[in-house]
Design brief:
The complex is a heterodimer of chains A (about 575) and B (about 270).
Chain A lengths: L3 E4 L15 H10 L1 H4 L12 H8 E6 L4 E3 L7 E7 L2 E4 L15 H11 L9 H5 L21 H7 L3 E3 L4 E2 L1 H6 L6 E4 L3 E7 H10 L1 H22 L8 H10 L1 E6 L4 H10 L4 H4 L2 E3 L7 E16 L2 E8 L4 E2 L1 H10 L8 E14 H8 L33 H9 L8 E5 L8 H9 L12 E2 L2 E3 L20 E3 L5 E3 L9 H5 L6 E4 L7 E4 L7 E4 L12 H5 L5 E4 L4 H8 L2
Parallel strand pairs in A: 1-22
Antiparallel strand pairs in A: 2-9, 3-8, 4-7, 4-9, 5-6, 5-8, 10-15, 11-15, 12-13, 12-14, 12-15, 16-18, 16-24, 17-18, 19-20, 21-23
Chain B lengths: L2 H29 L4 H24 L8 H22 L8 H33 L9 H23 L3 H14 L5 H6 L3 H13 L5 H57 L6
Helix pairs in contact in B: 1-3, 2-3, 2-9, 3-4, 4-9, 5-6, 5-9, 8-9
Classes of the chains: A alpha+beta (about 575), B mainly alpha (about 270).
Amino acid sequence: MISGVAIPRPRRWDRPFGPEMTEGDVLRVLRTLQVFAAIDPAQFPASSPLHDIVLNDARVRRHRAGEVILRKGDYGNSVFVIVTGVVRELPEAGVTLRSDRRQTPGLLGAISQLWRNARVPERRDITIYRNGHAGRANGVRRGDLRGVIRDIDEVIGHQPTRPLGPQEMFGEVAALSRAPHLATYFAETDVELLELRWQALRDIRRRDKGFREQLDALYRATSLKAHLRESPLFQGLHESALEQLASHTLFETHGEFEWSGGFKELAAQDPNDVLESEPVIAEHGDYLDGLLLIRYGFGRLSERLDHGHRTVGYVTHNEVFGLSEIVDHWRDGRDLTLRHGLRAVGFVDLLRVPTALVEDYVLPNLPPEHLPPPPGRSIPRQANRLGWRTELELEQTTINFLMNNRTINGTAAMFIDTDRCTGCDDCVRACALAHDNNPRFVRHGPEQDNIMVTNACMHCVDPVCLIGCPTGAIHRAPDGLVVIDDITCIGCATCANSCPYNNIRMVEIRDQRGDFIVDVETQAPIVKATKCDLCRDQLGGPACQRACPHEALVRIDLRDRERLVDWLTR
Amino acid sequence: MNAFAQRRLRNLALTGMSAGILIAINQLYDMSLRDAAFMNGWVLFAGMVFLSLFNLRKKLNVLPLVPAGAWLQMHIYVGGLCSLLFLLHSEFVLPNGTFETILWLLFVVVVVSGFTGLLLSRILPPRMDARGERVIFERIPFLRAQVARQVQELAMRSVQETRASTIADFYVKELAPYLYRPRNFLGNLVGSHRAERRLHVAIQALERYLDERGRAILGEIDALITAKANLDYQYALQLVLKLWLFFHLPLNYSLMLFSVLHIVIVYAFSAGAP
């Protein structure tokens, strides 16, 4: 037992999503919104009834006409249901909206960290926790408004838009696929919205089949056309041709939505078995019936080699599989057989566009410089707009290492070149300095040859750590970074257990004097989840990378293959 | 040519050009019968101040300054230029006074330690890589103790399971002293593994006195000795990589202090100098 300052142990709904949400609001939305009217509350357990979910994990938002609610390209964790008013969907980002400004400390604030930082580890201001029950979850108000459109008629008149009225939902694509929004949404009239954060969405989807099916159908319908429109391959197409393609395109999902548990078990046994466990989407040598567009997640490219499969690369968001084969068939009449196999790494959403339609509608309209070159011809490095240069020019062991450990999930993975790292720990010290003297990573991790992938949050493309969080404390900021709101975190460790890479640490917190903060009932220490936040509130970006004198450390987005290869072969 | 080689070539070319310009200016000063020592002395001092700022840059990582990696590159090449300036300033002759001799020695030692550090930081990390997984320096004592405990347990188990004291005796006499402290420090630095090899040979020599179970235990001990040797290797190399800075930095501070004194003295006794 540890003695210290005692507070009540934080619980799930201590800090509701919308603290101003009233009983009246809950009853009103449950009665008036059809999506809830059809739900049988008896399906929900006594510990988390539907009423409490709506009360605590939803909130009512009101916007004036012209206000932007969601911005294309931002990440989101919520679904919106329109209560009153009209919302416009704007598939093209045809308006200029202000960019987010992060809260940075300024020069003096930055320097003052040198003497303001705590002398005890994991210091917290206890008054925030004590007042937490009356407070609101971090970021609920700040940053809600994504911009304002002044001339609504001008916007509606000059670009394709879609009106959404009462009872309709939007925002589900980003929330369900952990991907960016595919369109901008703004209030055409004054609107009242119900915003359901991920936690509510997850729990209601899990319990109610009707809600789940309705949401999934909407997700597929919305994301199919929006994604086709988003892909550079189809950007030159007329709306009618796009309609034709959309009507024949299949939406497929492969792998498990919550893949982290199975992966951890598998990787603990033998990382080389990971490939065999991945669901096959297409086999090397099979007939190619359609172009595959990766909507979300990752696919492993492999080719048959004797009795096994050799990994050659990967495909990810907005990239295509099978384009070279279709182009060669269309151009030279070659066989439509796949030169590679494709497997789902974790969880993959993809669109299958029939080959004949690609040949009839897409390829004739594609500028020649966007087409893959014939086999045997080298591919210019710059000519990768459509992502068809998916093979990695790296040693086979390195490719296997990156794929088998699923490092390719990282958008800011920390790589250390151990051939250059002297172990000076300047990176660790810099990290600690930027985080109140608490380093937020461990300079250790899986190694292959001279590359170490350290235990630092990779800010994954597919952050499975978010799925189980009961409070929304760990969430994705609009800029895509995965961050933890310390005040909302209840220390349940769900995220730490879900992280496939063991990059989240649970820490025991202390007050200003260095005493442990403990649970008032059990006297057990209160713990919080911590991890790298990529120094988002610091000047100059990730401190670790800037601090390394030997240029041994880099934060790298593995979707950027060229930079990856350049760095690994420098 | 990879990116590092390209950069090295570019930086060497820039440094060479800068060195040429400095030598030319120095010659012009000489030809115009002005005292070049004042000019090259001040440039040298400015260079030394810049070099000393590197440590401050490392402490001020909270500011959006030039990344430490780029700064180190400047540090290395400006260090090279300062060495040239030092030679020009001292006119390629050894000092004769006590103060100047101390200053001269300090400069030489700081430069030599700097370039030694650079060499070590390029040579030792790949050598550590070649010996398996990189271990965090601060964890080495813990890991060493863990290995020692495992060997001790194996030695005790061997007595129970084989009813023979060969392994236990060997443990007391040879292994325990080897396991509980870092060993073969110098050998590891120069790449000699004689101590480790000697132990492996001694372990193998015990096999003839053991039964099957004893030989299995001995095999496990042999593997743990390899693990301990790897830890010693990492410890020795990482310690050197950490310690050279403790040599380079304090000497540099002394050098800066002596340089300021040198300037004060020069100006105090330079009345009438151009």
